[in-house]
Design a protein that fits this description.
Elements (H helix, E strand, L loop, with lengths): L10 E4 L18 H7 L5 E4 L2 E5 L1 E4 L10 E4 L5 E5 L6 E4 L4
Parallel strand pairs: 1-2, 2-5, 3-6, 4-7
Length: 98
């Protein structure tokens, strides 16, 4: 069996001091988790820097695959808090796989 892995996977970063107009790099992070998730494709990872994030629904609509998973992770365990926007329950929806 021969397995091909995506060598062009991207690591994005999100920070409370970021901007969604940025590139999403560690030096120039996005502001919102939802925006970062909307940029991700199979094999990508988003690292969420410590802080407090206000968000509506965070929706994973693109699938990864067995060899190229989509990963969302906090930089530090317990360092990220996600709160809902007014009138909206904080929600992470996974409408995809891997």
């Amino acid at each position: 069996m021969f397995v091909v892995s995506d060598v062009s996977a991207t690591i994005y970063y999100v920070s409370p001091s970021g901007n969604n107009g940025n590139s999403g790099s560690e030096a120039s992070p996005f502001l919102t988790i939802n925006y970062a998730v909307s940029q991700m494709v199979a094999g990508d990872t988003t690292i969420v820097e410590d802080g407090f994030y206000v968000s509506g629904n965070i929706n994973f609509a693109v699938s990864g695959n067995e060899n190229n998973r989509i990963t969302l992770q906090a930089r530090n365990i317990g360092g990220v808090t996600i709160s809902s926007t007014s009138g909206c329950a904080a929600n992470i929806s996974i409408n995809a796989s891997y």
